[in-house]
Specification:
The structure is a homodimer. By secondary structure, the first copy, chain A, is an alpha/beta fold. In chain A, 47% of the residues lie in helices and 15% in strands. Chain A has a single domain, classed as Aldolase class I (TIM Barrel). In chain A, strand 6 and strand 7 form a beta hairpin.
């Protein structure tokens, strides 16, 4: 029986890095060689997104444990985009990557269950076959339970939004309740669920999204959620640094994956790479940016300590 | 230029009812005549969902102002389901209904914008062409602004989750902050956005989801959000009653739409209709249940007062 918490630990150890590559195919930022066609046709865009993601996957699959496709960009292309998303997930899995679908889904009861059954589970169990899905907690515990139940049955995982990387996360997440902040209340719930679903390596299947842009909160939440995988977005373009995310790792140097989307997949746009590689060698920029991030994080991880 | 707040008011006045029919095609509850095929094939399911929704729309289009397809059930069927969803939305619009897509999407920055651009806007502006979309507020104001900006540009609308109908809504939404509850904080934000986007009839384009199961909170939120459209789920199967939702309407007898999904689309399963119509005449059960709900709500609405 598969266990997402264990599988993620194995994948991070095997590759020696906690780097998570975000697949956010924004049309305007694609290499010109890919986006020079008819950009108004959604089916064309969808096909280009799929091709772009395949090429990114070809570069990063030997280097990192997992990728995180962003559902929004595929959904923007309509049904053709959703087909491209399914193919992208299948290709990443075929290349040995774990796939965390960033869909931030949420609903109640049998509707939540429908999302979970649709997205989670391999080998024909689900339509989309993601290994994990991001979910939003505003509806409360009874909205998350159906996701957890389905994920448990299918060896899949979840990442619940806890403290996100954007400035506006202050509006609700940072608000003070009698016993702490709103995000801490969500964190306590997530940790309890991680404990209830704990695998052989001590992590549960219910992770937490904690933004790289708030190092103090990362440290607080690492302590509050010792058995929980943290998914840390906001590295690079949003301002998160290797030093800032260091508190996300536990005493084993594990327990966190650090996402970078634009900084890797659109590395050819970064000043330090644009001249060196140009648009035509964008795949080399992706590889170099991935290796650079791996090196930056190496000191902070178990993999770094072992290598 | 279209304005969702105005359009919804016109549609409610024209039809004389605030009934919103939820299109939640659950396989297990479909009439046997539709679900007798190969239920394990997702493409088959998707095609059946589309056929079922078309037939429901044929019945309810002359009676109600709007329908609310639930994205989860279509997504569960994979890409074929998403095609069925697009066709269902197009068919409903062709029949003169406003379409509120229940997707509870949420994200930040350009990702939120991609969802909004993908789902909102007619006449080729978006892939899915919904008139409005439900969104989740946990990420904060800067996550909602891109949705509002795109909706404003395109004459579309949003419904932000404020106080939901499920018992677990207590976990975060009911928590006390220094100046009130979490849901009230969201409500104050939504009302401000409604005021900023107000149309000729005084309502904005940013509505609020407020569960039928909490009549006291409905009354509080109606007062707190005078210019905001309320989308009230939880009527019928979840325990909400016409009396309970009465406080959702403003002094004009407008300002709220009341959703019923299972109680209408699966009315043939309700004890009072199952013998009378049987599975074979399920469309008549849909019609009767819709007319019954319209009658129950009539006393509470402007339409009721005018008719």
């Amino acid at each position: 029986m598969r266990h997402f918490g264990d599988d993620l630990a194995s994948a991070v150890k095997r590759t020696g890095t906690p780097v998570l590559v975000g697949l956010d195919p924004r049309w305007e930022q694609l290499p010109v060689s890919l986006s020079s066609g008819n950009s108004d046709d959604r089916s064309v865009r969808a096909a280009v997104y799929e091709k772009f993601c395949r090429e990114v996957i070809d570069v990063v699959a030997p280097l990192v444990p997992a990728v995180k496709p962003q559902a929004a960009f595929f959904e923007e292309c309509g049904p053709a985009g959703m087909t491209a998303l399914a193919k992208t997930i299948a290709y990443a899995r075929q290349k040995g990557l774990l796939v965390i679908l960033d869909g931030k889904r949420n609903d109640i009861g049998s509707t939540a269950e429908a999302y979970a059954r649709g997205f989670l589970g391999r080998d024909g169990q689900s339509a989309w076959e993601a290994d994990a899905l991001t979910v939003s907690p505003y509806l409360g515990a009874d909205s998350l339970q159906p996701f957890i139940d389905v994920a448990s049955e299918r060896g899949a995982g979840l990442f619940v939004l806890v403290k996100t990387s954007n400035p506006g996360s202050h509006m609700l997440q940072d608000q003070q309740l009698s016993e702490g902040t709103v995000y801490r209340r969500v964190a306590d719930y997530v940790e309890k669920q991680s404990q209830l679903t704990s695998g052989q390596r001590g992590y549960g299947i219910v992770g937490a999204v904690v933004g790289a842009t708030y190092p103090a909160q990362i440290a607080e939440l690492r302590t509050a959620m010792p058995q929980t995988w943290l998914l840390v977005p906001g590295f690079g373009s949003q301002g998160g640094t290797a030093e800032g995310v260091a508190p996300a790792f536990d005493h084993r140097g594990l327990g966190a994956i650090i996402n970078n989307s634009r900084g890797i997949i659109f590395a050819h746009k970064r000043p330090e790479f644009s001249e060196r590689f140009g648009e035509s060698r964008w795949q080399e920029a992706v590889e170099t940016a991935t290796l650079e991030m791996i090196a930056q994080l190496r000191a902070e991880t178990l993999a770094g300590k072992l290598s």
